[in-house]
Design goal:
Layout: H1 2-7, H2 10-40, H3 47-89, H4 93-135, H5 137-143, H6 148-184, H7 191-201, H8 204-230, H9 240-266
């Protein structure tokens, strides 16, 4: 295939690349719509599906929850200390804690949680789905009257969304606690000022944007690797080019969501 692309003229290569990307994005949107319909359908939560869904949610969340929380706490404590000491040296101590909250909780933690879930859970799940497809397991499910999307893909997508939101929510709480401890220590005297600052930062509009960004991050890291595995061309299910294409699309979506969030928060 690479040789054939080299033999093509530049406009033909551009056209084929654009068509391939348009087809990939249309499949992601279509699969997202299918998953949304299945999530809202009561028939998707039968006895067998419930057990499979609970197992994937546990396996995608429990093994990484403690490690990511500890890592987030250490990073938050170190960054809080760096920002506070730097702000004190420039006489900007009154803005230090608000800067920490805005940078860590609003921006870094949701993105870090989504990327962590992608690397540890959803991308390996996509590889598993690709092997199932190439080995004929999904076709065997169809022959036995089962829907492969409902049986194999839906639990993985829901588990990825759940893991990303859970890690982001828990890490945000830990970051708020560590930021307070990094500035005031084990002292409750700074709690009134801290709660006022927290209310100033998390206005209703900012809170809504934060929730939507976390949700869209989780949808992106959960859905795009599954779509890349399910709709890969025959023979490309486990090729590096196919995996890199899925990663590129996922990072592009995360970047667009982050840019939209920054514009909504600060412009």
């Amino acid at each position: 295939m690479i040789a054939s692309l080299v033999d093509l003229s530049w406009p033909e290569r551009v056209w084929r690349t654009a068509r391939r990307w348009a087809l990939a994005w249309s499949r992601i949107v279509y699969l997202g719509a299918v998953v949304l319909v299945l999530v809202l359908s009561p028939s998707s939560y039968g006895r067998g599906t419930r057990g499979r869904l609970a197992r994937h949610m546990y396996l995608n969340t429990a093994p990484i929850l403690l490690g990511f929380t500890v890592l987030a706490a250490l990073i938050c404590l170190v960054l809080t200390r760096i920002v506070v000491v730097t702000a004190l040296s420039y006489g900007l101590s009154r803005y230090a804690l608000e800067m920490v909250i805005r940078v860590l909780v609003l921006e870094l933690i949701p993105l870090t949680a989504a990327l962590f879930v992608a690397m540890r859970c959803t991308i390996p799940n996509g590889v598993q789905l690709a092997f199932m497809r190439s080995s004929g397991h999904l076709e065997a499910l169809r022959r036995h009257g089962a829907d492969p999307v409902r049986v194999e893909l839906l639990p993985r997508v829901v588990a990825g969304v759940y893991a990303s939101i859970t890690l982001a929510a828990l890490s945000c709480v830990v970051a708020l606690v560590m930021a307070y401890l990094g500035v005031y220590g084990f002292n409750l005297s700074g709690l009134p000022a801290y709660t006022r600052m927290f209310g100033h930062v998390f206005s209703p509009a900012v809170t809504l944007l934060f929730g939507l960004k976390t949700l869209f991050f989780s949808l992106a890291v959960a859905l795009i690797p599954m779509a890349s595995a399910l709709y890969a061309p025959d023979g490309d299910a486990v090729r590096p080019e196919s995996e890199l294409g899925g990663l590129a699309r996922m990072f592009a979506v995360l970047l667009l969501i982050e840019i939209a969030s920054l514009m909504g928060n600060y412009y």
